[in-house]
Amino acid sequence: MNSRAMGGLLAATAMFATTVMTGWTQTLEDGFKTPAVEARPRLRWWWPGDAVTDAELTREVRLMADNGFGGAEVASFTPGFVTLTPEEKVAVNNYGEPSFFAHLRIAGEAAKAAGLTLDYTLGSSWPSGGGFAIPPEKAFTELSMARTEVKGGQSGPIKVTLPKRTRRLGALNFLDARVKDPKVADWGKRLDARARTVAVVAMKGSAPDLVKRPGAMGLTISPWSDVLTSGTLDPASRIVLTDRLNDDGTLDWTPPPGDWQVFVFRQYAADVGVLGAAGQGPQLILDHMDPTAFAAHAARVGAPLGRNPTGLRSTFVDSLELMQDIQWGPQLLDEFRKRRGYDLTPYLPFVVQPGWMQAWDEHYSPPYFDTSASDLAERVRADYRRTVSDMMFAGFIEPFVAWNHAHGLKAKFQAHGGAFDIIRGYGLADIPETEDLPHGGDPLFMRFARSAAHLYGRPIISAESFAWKDRPYDVTPGEMRRRADTILSGGVNSIIMHGMNYRFHAEDWPGWHAFQPSPFALGFSGPINETNPVWPGMKTLAAYIGRLQSVLQAGEAVVPVAYFYGRYGYYVGIEDDGAGKQAAEKAFLASGYDFDRINPDSIAQAKVKGRQLLSRGGQRYGALVLPPVDGIRADTAEAIAAMAKSGLPVIFTDRAPSRDEGLADAKARDARVRKAVAAALKAGAKVVPAGEVSAALRAASVPANLSFGGDASDLVFVQRRVDGRTATFLHNRADAARNVNISLPGIGGVTRWDAMDGSISAQSAGAVDGATRVPLTLAAGESALLVLDPKTQPRTVAEPALIASADLPISGWSLSVKGHVMRKPFTRDFGSVSLKDWREVPELAGFAGQASYSRSFTVDPGWLAAGTRVTLDLGQVHDIATVTVNGRTLQPVIAAPFRVDLTPALKPGANALTVVVANVLQNGMINPNDAVYKKLQPVPAGWVGPVRLEARK
């Protein structure tokens, strides 16, 4: 994309960013009590292709609105492992046809009528591609490598190994009837025709020491073994022999004396298609380095929407998950030469590093080959990865954003997993979206999306949320609540819940689930819809999330530290050779400093104002910290030096960079880096040991968000400043309680905002040394939203005193149940029972559904005196409980502690109590006679207690 087009794209993006925040008229309290639509959580809404009806789409949109959701993300694909009728197969594969877009318009109109908006996945499933629009010539490619060890002195020609195409999931799957269409009879040959020998290179050197790595889920993901010790090559001996290779694998070459490694590099069309895609025709993945491939794709799956489609907010690109031996595009060598200034061909053996942005199995391994006495190989890899990144932006990301803006839509994009500058990838999108599947919801990983949002001016940070592998039916609302807190503590402010299934095959309870178990895998969570017995708790959960997001979308983020990240792609462990300790990030938070990662592109566009780094997006940082890196782009080093000269505190951890990252013109560029670093140090930048960075920040008068007293391990936080007040959200990730004192900057009164019921109460706090100290106990998985107001004063708040209590009996409860056992309807009245785990009751051991417990109890009139609150502690509940007292139904309780305030519903003397307990689907799905469902294991279920009434004043 040329500079003028890029300028227009950025201007349009800025326009979209500013429109989100205009019209914010609610006070913080109002938004917390009743969250605006934009603050409410959204649902990923799975459609079975085009096998949908207007009436059901409209009903489901209304259902979302009635239960407190702000909208949905439409994801349409093939319903796997479901027996479809011939008519259903046709309907499913009408995705992308006029009937599909007619249905999408109806859904959009229904969303608008309900005050919601939809996001639309731009294509069926992922990665992007599929249909007749992506023929073999526009499909994505990979580079494969084969290596032969050769002893010098033998006469040529010599026999070398030729690389084969890695067999994966099948670009043209013979089990798919769509590939038998006569219109694509020659596609297999055309895919094979993409194969060509790119290079044959010989270098003196030794072989790597390798260890075989198993494929993910038993599949072949990559041909590479992991490296124990890298092979060593002598780049001075490099010889390009491409034109001497014969078709039979003989090489017309006589190797000179020495030990040689001969490499053959061959391009292939990658053998994997769009995963689970609906639609007509084969489902080839498009070439993400070719803008014409994206244009063809968008014309098929997006253009029929027209401009400004009703009810649609954005289009969305899900996980990239591009499986390639070596990231590649047919034009890469030419582009590399133009962009980096030299020919990559003789250096291709250095680019292979197993695990680097390897879809489904990103991990650290040393590279196959290095050099013994120089950093040449590392420089080549940096140049190669930068070029891959450049081509992904030019071929896919920039066209995707521009297409959306041209059609009056926002662009929503998941950049993680991409072999490019992921901060810029997130940042170019109007709505950067992360996800919680990697590492079980890692708030440090998720900070990459938030970083991009702050750097590029994006107010909404989205997350695909509540995705648990191998747990299709047993994720509880309590776990969702805890995971939501983890996600929000990672900087996200717009949760997309994974997810709601369109009601399909509902007669076969619980109906279609997009990620239901199969003979090959247990699938993913989870059905968030009416067929799940815990659905009545979703409105409570949605309100909880919405209240928190209303605060986290307000005001401006307080992030003192910009922490440099100059690599391409990301996975946990990429920065510490696979250790995955995230030591620096954890140290920042433990010392009270929040941080964003900052990339070279953002440094180039930032300026210093008042000794603070001001990003293009308007975020302010009190300091720039660099991790230990040797190579950095010369222009980035010079920009950092200019910042230091302007008064920005700059800290180099352990050591300062000493060279440029690339190979071209290395001597001159290295000199520029050294000169820039020297200038930065002269201006006041510091080289600081890793363990002393936080102390150095304080010595540089960089204000922290807060400070901790006590054991703060596993505490994570985010902070915002709203109309002069400071809102701090803290989450305890540990499985044990944390008792800490938190010191917040400045002096003011503190309130604690309870997102579960919308209440706001005074929090004990005191003024100490110009700060406000707050004593806080957080149970395992618990969170707190604290708001400091400098217009008020801190004070001590007495805890309500327990004045009376009474235990309700474990026995004597009337019980009736309605639900399913082994997926078949089950209803029974049990009469009088004792509270216990349903797994201990033979009739309920395989039950999923709702159970109604009832009894009466007596309340002493003295408990109802003014100022007294009476709570019911239900003890252990699996998994939600809805309490009704004297005919008044109270808000469902969805997470521990299962306590309900009964005060408004009580009367003196006898009171009628009903507790409806619902469990997740899991136990009702288990069938020992079914090859798939017998793999599921029973989980705790029902109501165990003990049950206790408490009166406090």
Report on this model:
Helix 1 crosses helix 9 (376-406) and helix 16 runs parallel beside helix 17. The strands form twelve sheets. The chain has an eight-stranded parallel β-barrel, surrounded by six helices. The protein has a six-stranded mixed β-sheet with strand order 15-4-12-7-10-16, with helices on one face. The N and C termini lie far apart (67 Å). It has 953 residues and is an alpha/beta fold. The protein contains 19 helices and 51 strands. The model is unreliable at 1-24 (pLDDT under 50).
Total helical elements: 19
**Biggest β-sheet strands, sense, barrel:** 8 strands, parallel, barrel
Fraction of residues in helix: 10-25%
Structural class: alpha/beta
Biggest β-sheet: strands ordered side by side in the sheet: 1-2-3-14-17-18-19-20
Distance between the termini: 67 Å
